[in-house]
Amino acid sequence: MSEAFFEPLGGGRFAATEHTSGPWDPASQHAGPPAALLSRALARCAPREGTLLSRLTFEVLGAVPVAEVEVEAQVARPGRTVELLEAELRAGGRTAMTARAWRIPVAAAPSAGLDTLAPLPPRPPEPTPPPSPFGYGEAVELRFASGAWREPGPTTVWTRLRVGIVAGEPPSPLERVLAVADSGNGVSALLPWEEWLFINPELTVHVQREPRGEWICLDAATTIAQGGAGVARSVLSDEDGPVAYGAQSLLVTPR
After folding, report:
1. How far apart are the first and last CA of the chain?
2. Tell me: the pLDDT tens digits for 36-86?
3. CA dist list (Å): 235 to 80, 189, 242
């Protein structure tokens, strides 16, 4: 069994492993691993010292198969200070996901406003496996500080990758965040999984700084408006505090 979500094949091509499979269909990937893989391509696209990918938006154009994928990135709008990057993930002859990211210089200003945030809950001593095993659910360790699997409502859960993003290399700090950012709607679900789908066609993450360490805390909550749409919002933190803020629009429909 591979120790990563993807095996490199060369030329921007990767073989998705069984660790990428999601909860809705074992033949389709959870969006976390391909989002992390796209962020890897963006970070390596014409890299510049002293910059940060400050906002990343992922469009899920269709199911990403657990199969070979190809990733390519480019600078969409160059600039001396601020740049817009874009990346594409293709599978089976079609574009399955796209990503756009703003790259900006890191702030020269001191920290401000962070001391008003509530302290993070302690990390529980033991992980909680998913009630119904699936590849991604077993490749990411989850320790619930509040809430639980299949328990409706807001959830705070500490996460840690058990496998790498790409075989043979350690995950970058940003990859660790994006590998779990797409889980906000799942862990904070409000409706029974057996009766409803709540799938996100997009994920947007605003990054405040690079995380430190291997643990990422996901504090997530979902709201659903009758006659409208669902939205899942999340705060992603390391042990020193918030590092990013995520949001997902949700397709909510009966199974």
Report:
1. 32
2. 999 999 999 999 999 999 999 999 999 999 999 999 999 999 999 999 999
3. 30, 16, 7
* 4-106+120-254 classified as CATH 2.40.160.20: no
Q: Which of 1, 8, 3, 6 is nearest to 16 (CA)?
A: 6
Among 187, 181, 173, which residue's Cα sits nearest to residue 248? Answer: 181
Cα four-point dihedral sign 181, 73, 82, 51: positive
Question: At which residue do the structure tokens 């900006």 appear?
Answer: 104
